[in-house]
Predict the 3D structure of the following.
Amino acid sequence: MDNKDSARINQLKNVLKRLGLEDDRSIRWDLMNLALTHPSYSPVNNYQQLEFLGDAVIRLVSAEFLLEEYPQTNVGQFTAIRSILVSDKTLAYWAEAFGLEQFLLMSGQSAKDVIGRTSRLAEMFEAILGALYLSTNDMSLIRPWLDSLLKDKSTEILLDPALENYKDALQEWSQLNYKCLPEYKVEEISSQQGDPERFIAQVWLNGEILGHGKGQSKKGSQQAAAKDAFLKINNNGSSP
Amino acid sequence: MDNKDSARINQLKNVLKRLGLEDDRSIRWDLMNLALTHPSYSPVNNYQQLEFLGDAVIRLVSAEFLLEEYPQTNVGQFTAIRSILVSDKTLAYWAEAFGLEQFLLMSGQSAKDVIGRTSRLAEMFEAILGALYLSTNDMSLIRPWLDSLLKDKSTEILLDPALENYKDALQEWSQLNYKCLPEYKVEEISSQQGDPERFIAQVWLNGEILGHGKGQSKKGSQQAAAKDAFLKINNNGSSP
């Protein structure tokens, strides 16, 4: 560990306590310290490698959880739900809920970077997952506390998918399956403000129309088209 | 297992033998059977869920391997190497090397789909990784045989990165880090065939130029621009 002072040890203990892991002897403290060190604090010994690993950990643990919890759900829907579970927005929300930011070593300049805060929190969260995974080479230090978060979030998504962003989910799905992005074509068919059918949108992928939507704003019509595409994908398994 | 006849059991044993796992008692045969069943054979009991999981398994095991094997390598380069390791092309190559296709249950129509063959082989390979991961909830059935493949492929990439496709690697990297795709602008500056500087290309991401390249073909100039972008990314860690 770079910083061996007892204040840092106490910080790391505090983080582990918040995750319900304070008594675990298998935890690699050197890795936990790295996971909570921003590149602005140390250009060499920081969370980047663990974040790279943790990005795959959260994908795998989410997939495991979804398969166990919703065995009847089709793969198209899994892909959509996982894209939300592993998004920066969700990971940053969890990091925030545990109050982890105060334990991140970083330069004062970086701390002032408000725009980069969501990414920073998400990266730190992924790095912690990476450190915990490498401590035991399995998910035994992760699932005991992460499962309830995955459960709450996936229940929320399934109960009201409209809470979430279909465009983001469709983009993730198309990148994963087709290595390209959906495109939207929007037409204004009425100039009356507030008309729920003022705009119509089509979403295209690889020269094919995936879905149609209407809305009183451009963005609303795109979201509706993305939702339409989503329902079709979910009905057909993993292909549109 | 859907298909309990002894011929199928022998097929699965044969697959496990090829992976050096024939004596392992922890293997879940029901999952191995699913992993080797194409959706055209059974619309419900097929490899799709395991493939969804296995996609995350190969990402995680590749990250683990790279961190252990090349601890001094920067994260930008890791991302590039991993994108090649987890690509359909690589996974299909490995499935082919083990001669696995003959054990995949599928409709005769699907077997004739030559264009979809690479995806099919890659999906089957991911599904097998998913089945082996779920058998023990760790990588203990995977790393003993996969590590040498990861080692050979990563050595090949590091020795001669030009063997590989920089455009694909850059695309994977930009999707992962920026959720959008690089764009190429190509200009013909000489009409002389064979002129190594006939085309010049720029590669853009989010309104910024990542790299420049020249070539005697459009594609060559794009690859050169992608390579230029790559070297810059590798020198700067994970940001361009």
Observations:
- The domain at 169-235 of chain A is CATH 3.30.160.20 (Double Stranded RNA Binding Domain).
- The first strand of chain A starts at residue 183 and ends at 188.
- Chain A has ten helices and three strands.
- Chain A touches chain B at residues 39, 43, 48-49, 51-53, 55-57, 59-60, 62-64, 67, 74-75, 78-79, 133-134, 137-139, 171-172, 175-176, 179-181, 237-238 (CB under 8 Å).
